[in-house]
Amino acid sequence: MKPFRKLSSMAKSNLLIFQTTSAKTQTLFSPIYKTSALNQIPASLTETRSFCSDSSHTEKIKFRTEKRASAAALSSLADLAVELSNSSDPEALAAVLESKADSLFRNYPDGSASIELLNHLKSSPRIALEVFYWKRKRVDAGIPMVSEEYAKAITLAGRMKNVDLAADLFSEAGINGLCSAAVYNALMSAYMYNSLTKKSLSLFEDLKRDANCRPTIVTYNILLSLFGRSMLVPHMETVLGVIKESNLSPSLHTYNTVIEGYATAWMWDEMERTFESMKASPVRPDIRTHMLMLRGYAHSGNVEKMERTYELVKEEVNERCAPMVRAMIHAYCKSKDTGRVKKIEALMRFLPEVEYRPWLNVLLIWVYAQEDLVEGMENSIYEALKHNTLVMTVNVMHAIIASYFRLNAVDQLAWFVKQAEDAGWRLCRSLYHCKMVMYGLQNRLEEMENVLDEMEVSRFNATKKTFWILYKAYSNAGEKSKVQRLLVLMCKHGFGIPVDASTS
């Protein structure tokens, strides 16, 4: 499949983003990287040498030692994490660690116990870092530090947006001889998630120069994510080519990152080809994969595939993913699905009322208007007015007008026009012309004539169509005197005389 195709000799020679001599590469990167040192990722990345896969450093750090924490120890660590989370200050944390963590950490000098504890505390990064600091002070007491602990701490600092701390921890790991590929990856990720793209790429350069470390699949996953987020698809695809030419196997995170990159760039065919390539590989799609595909199908308007994918992740979407629900509703609004209203209303139940979105409210008005479901349309109009939502789209206003006209609901149209005027919605001459036509058809001539005053207040001048509406209404009502006066006015304004007008 295309995303992981084997590079030809010509392709190898044209890995543009990794060659310093390529003017095209410099042009592609220049909006992001200003310094010459960061205009490209060095050509050495394209070498097809055998990289150490470092399988222990996957997206979730695994322990490299044979000795693992027992089930009882794991349970104790989980309880300890809860107790630490409830501790209010550093002194209380230290007291808990002294009494309950010291023996655990001593029993597992490989660091597995402390890493597991940091995993339990990842939702409380401040407390997790306090645990790391405490553990670091125990080195002189015979409890060594391991590189994975530094990687975890750097990741935590990045999540707290403290990149200076992350960089300091990286330097400390290097001084202590613990600077592994996982530590590099952690700092690259911290830079990336804090939008420090140049620093992330510069660190990648350092990693390739480090004689003791080699890039892993996690490293390249970070590059893929970096380029995918920036919609630099050609660069993302070049990294894929390097992965293919090396001895690194794409991981689940690799595929998900590429799918997300293509979806972000609205490259639907490439997104789907990557998904098919994934299914043909030993890597199995997970719930995130299906969620990414669902988002892609929703944004591309592929309702059929969206519905099939939704069935695979329905529970997750309904319970925890309101943005995905909104994306699906948007897809139905734009579709011609005959049962779209029922499907939209079924999805609406999963949106919290507090999560009001003006754009979605306006879309619902538009859909209900198209379907002539006046009750739903007016309920959505009420919602928009209640939230002071401004409707400035002509197509939506026209859809409302047309719906009222088809239902012959002139009084409801008159109410809507008044509300739209007061709310500052985008008015159009069609609103008033439609009212005039409907009043004329019901022979309510005085109310029809009052619309002319409303038009004047809203600064809409009478046009040829305005006079023709009046002419038809007066003619059908047998108001000959008014017809004669109107014909004079039409001639005066240069609108001509209707061919069916009586000359007598």
UniProtKB/TrEMBL annotation:
<feature type="coiled-coil region">
    <location>
        <begin position="438"/>
        <end position="465"/>
    </location>
</feature>
<keyword id="KW-0677">Repeat</keyword>
<dbReference type="GO" id="GO:0003729">
    <property type="term" value="F:mRNA binding"/>
</dbReference>
<keyword id="KW-0175">Coiled coil</keyword>
<dbReference type="InterPro" id="IPR011990">
    <property type="entry name" value="TPR-like_helical_dom_sf"/>
</dbReference>
<comment type="similarity">
    <text>Belongs to the PPR family. P subfamily.</text>
</comment>
<dbReference type="Pfam" id="PF13041">
    <property type="entry name" value="PPR_2"/>
</dbReference>
<dbReference type="InterPro" id="IPR002885">
    <property type="entry name" value="PPR_rpt"/>
</dbReference>
<feature type="repeat" description="PPR">
    <location>
        <begin position="251"/>
        <end position="285"/>
    </location>
</feature>
<protein>
    <submittedName>
        <fullName>Pentatricopeptide repeat-containing-like protein</fullName>
    </submittedName>
</protein>
<dbReference type="InterPro" id="IPR044179">
    <property type="entry name" value="PPR5-like"/>
</dbReference>
